[in-house]
């Protein structure tokens, strides 16, 4: 044991666990920061710039390891005992009100606090002049001279002696500010706390820093976190009041009911936070935007404007444009015409009923197209000749909230995106003869929105090509959706608050997607949970029996082959070649004749008509079954309220979904799949 302890201490005394270790090295490996404000304040170590893998490795390997939620403080204390200098270093004590230089004389590891005294000379900066030397002394006496380590910023030292101390304090501060939740201690202790909580929160933190999460989702997460913390504090207060009360009074019963309601709300918010923290589920379930686009409405004079966008205007182009789009017969006498060099500027100048005509060219924009009014964007030519490309990082490309928006004959190209290429939040949007080169997800149809997309091509989405939310209306006619993560993703609509989406898919070609052609996301029903468990047990038994039979069969075949080889060694050479397709094909391959190989490739590449169209029936049946389940749940809720519905065909399957004539080809996982959660 003594040898093992000595080896462990030698491991910790070295620098193998940290890229910034300084013990045994000359000079510091960390940078420095000059504090703002008081020029007399000393510099501090620059430790808040650590990379993801540096924090990840430290928390996983050296601080938390496989601890449970209730053991977090104990594991952190043990880590600090190994790396934190107990005294001899200075720090800046920072609160929201003041900053003061202190010297550390001791560390209470179990409480995660440092015993400090005011620095000499006394250096303090505050919002007002009330924090004098005497005032700070009184404050420290009240705190028994113990300050939380996370409130200390270690003063810079060139010797490198306090590098690990600065890093240790930074890890503790970051953990309690960004990763720890006040309710974590009450989580179940039968799981690895790091894997369950710390890792997803750490990844989300760096995803936000690196602009990989939409700003709307970040706002949602911060709001949910604040609400959850507030409700949890109220819950703790109610619970403590019940525990302190010994009487079985009516007031205590009321408090218990209130506590149960708060507990349910907290659990609901915690589940939402976990969905956002999970990198896979945060985009599957999406979020609701709170930012609404304000429509301008009609102009005061009631006039409408045609906005012409061009890069270079030649006489021939102007002549054709005037003949086809700008003549009085086609646009009217009272229409005004304005010219722009930038499509984003033209859309920003639109009012209700305006029209934007974009001439051929490659337009590069850095911004978001916010379409809040009923306007029309039309390319004058083929889509490949009118390209609008987005540069720079940003959340959105096209946001549509107008009552009736129409976009046609354009090619939209997206790079370095966080959200999809086009979002339909409200109203109806029609897309015709367009090409969409996506980056993240493709087109999203939000709740209560309507999309009509026809004769268009969409590809390149790292998520779903088209996302359909509950309560929306989506009509897809004669489109190509290909080379995406998933072709079409239909969000869960089994929740009682959601309406069934109305989906029409006719003559679309959905091909070469990495996953499924169409995916339905819905919760797993209790009956399905039981069936899945029973099926797994059955499959395990069948697999065991099958393996035993297979082993016996292989052994028998080996023995028969061995006997045949010993008794008839020349049998294989004396057999004449057999006629037949299979033998001829084998001989052709041996003689390297290309005809047989060519036929084989043709058979492989020839599409099976039944396979191309079977996805239509599978999709319609699954959506119909899911709708039937929702109807059943709806009737069950009504029966509990003693309400009966006479019309069982309130919404028939034909009204709910129309799927026909679509082709599903070469999708990685098949035509249709269901994501159960």
UniProtKB/TrEMBL annotation:
What's in the keyword line of the UniProt record?
Acetylation, Cytoplasm, Cytoskeleton, Phosphoprotein, Repeat
Keyword Phosphoprotein among UniProt keywords: yes
Grouped into one coarse class, the protein's main location is cytoplasm
Q: Which SMART domains match?
A: PbH1
Q: Where is the Right handed beta helix domain?
A: 414-520
- Per the record, the domain of life is Eukaryota
Which ranges form a coiled coil?
none
Q: Which Pfam families match?
A: Beta_helix, SHCBP_N
Q: Could you state one GO cellular component term attached to this entry?
A: spindle
Domain SHC SH2, chain residue ranges per copy: 54-282
| One of the protein's GO biological processes | fibroblast growth factor receptor signaling pathway
Entry keyword Acetylation? yes
PANTHER family recorded: SHC SH2 DOMAIN-BINDING PROTEIN 1 (PTHR14695:SF8), SHC SH2-DOMAIN BINDING PROTEIN 1-RELATED (PTHR14695)
Subunit arrangement?
Interacts directly with isoform p52shc of SHC1 via its SH2 domain. Interacts with TRIM71; leading to enhanced SHCBP1 protein stability. Interacts with both members of the centralspindlin complex, KIF23 and RACGAP1.
What this chain does, per the entry, is described as:
May play a role in signaling pathways governing cellular proliferation, cell growth and differentiation. May be a component of a novel signaling pathway downstream of Shc. Acts as a positive regulator of FGF signaling in neural progenitor cells.
Listed name of the protein: SHC SH2 domain-binding protein 1
Which gene codes for it?
Shcbp1
């Amino acid at each position: 044991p003594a040898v093992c302890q000595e080896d462990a201490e030698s491991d910790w005394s070295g620098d193998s666990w940290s890229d910034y270790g300084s013990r045994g090295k000359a000079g510091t490996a960390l940078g420095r920061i000059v504090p703002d404000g008081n020029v007399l304040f000393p510099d501090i170590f620059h430790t808040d710039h650590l990379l993801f893998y540096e924090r990840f490795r430290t928390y996983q390997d050296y601080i938390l390891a496989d601890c449970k939620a209730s053991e977090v403080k104990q594991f952190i204390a043990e880590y600090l005992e190994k790396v934190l200098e107990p005294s001899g270093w200075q720090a800046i004590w920072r609160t929201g009100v003041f900053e003061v230089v202190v010297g550390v004389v001791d560390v209470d590891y179990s409480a995660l606090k440092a015993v400090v005294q005011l620095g000499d000379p006394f250096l303090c900066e505050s919002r007002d002049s009330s924090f004098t030397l005497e005032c700070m002394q009184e404050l420290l006496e009240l705190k028994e001279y113990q300050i939380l380590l996370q409130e200390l910023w270690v003063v810079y030292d060139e010797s490198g002696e306090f590098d690990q101390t600065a890093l240790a304090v930074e890890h503790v501060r970051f953990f309690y500010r960004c990763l720890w939740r006040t309710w974590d201690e009450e989580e179940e202790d039968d799981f690895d706390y790091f894997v369950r909580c710390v890792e997803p929160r750490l990844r989300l933190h760096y995803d936000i820093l690196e602009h990989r999460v939409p700003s709307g989702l970040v706002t949602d997460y911060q709001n949910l976190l604040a609400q959850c913390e507030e409700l949890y504090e109220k819950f703790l207060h109610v619970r403590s009041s019940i525990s302190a009360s010994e009487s079985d009074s009516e007031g205590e019963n009321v408090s218990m009911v209130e506590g149960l309601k708060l507990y349910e709300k907290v659990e609901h918010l915690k589940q939402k936070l976990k969905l956002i923290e999970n990198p896979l589920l945060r985009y599957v379930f999406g979020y609701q935007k709170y930012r609404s686009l304000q429509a301008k409405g009609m102009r005061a004079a009631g006039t409408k404007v045609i906005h012409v966008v061009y890069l270079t205007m030649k006489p021939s182009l102007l002549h054709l444009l005037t003949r086809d789009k700008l003549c009085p017969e086609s646009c009217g006498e009272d229409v005004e015409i304005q010219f722009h060099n930038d499509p984003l500027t033209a859309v920003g100048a639109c009012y209700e009923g305006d029209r934007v005509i974009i001439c051929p060219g490659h337009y590069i924009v850095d911004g978001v197209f916010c379409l809040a009014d009923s306007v029309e964007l039309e390319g004058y030519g083929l889509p490949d000749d009118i390209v609008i490309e987005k540069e720079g990082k940003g959340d959105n490309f096209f946001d549509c909230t107008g009552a009736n928006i129409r976009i046609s004959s354009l090619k939209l190209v997206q790079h370095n995106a966080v959200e999809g290429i086009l979002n339909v939040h409200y109203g109806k949007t029609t897309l015709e003869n367009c090409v969409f080169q996506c980056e993240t997800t493709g087109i999203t149809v939000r709740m209560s929105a309507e999309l009509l997309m026809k004769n268009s091509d969409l590809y390149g989405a790292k998520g779903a090509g088209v996302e359909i939310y509950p309560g929306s209306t989506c009509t897809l006619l004669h489109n190509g959706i290909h080379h995406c993560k998933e072709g079409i993703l239909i969000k869960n609509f089994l929740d009682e608050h959601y309406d069934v989406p109305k989906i029409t898919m006719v003559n679309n070609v959905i091909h070469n997607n990495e996953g499924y052609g169409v995916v339905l996301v819905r919760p797993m029903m209790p009956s399905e949970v039981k069936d899945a468990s029973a099926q797994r047990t059955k499959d395990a038994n069948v697999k065991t029996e099958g393996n035993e039979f297979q082993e016996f069969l292989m052994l028998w075949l080996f023995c028969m082959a061995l006997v045949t080889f010993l008794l008839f060694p020349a049998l294989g050479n004396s057999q004449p070649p057999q006629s037949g397709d299979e033998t001829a094909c084998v001989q052709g391959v041996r003689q390297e004749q290309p005809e047989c190989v060519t036929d084989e490739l043709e058979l492989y590449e020839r599409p099976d008509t039944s396979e191309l169209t079977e996805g239509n029936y599978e999709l319609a049946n699954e959506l119909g079954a899911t709708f039937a389940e929702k109807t059943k749940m709806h009737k069950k809720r009504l029966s509990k309220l003693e309400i009966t519905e006479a019309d069982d065909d309130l919404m028939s399957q034909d009204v709910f979904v129309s799927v026909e004539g679509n082709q599903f080809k070469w999708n990685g996982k098949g035509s249709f799949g269901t994501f159960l959660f």
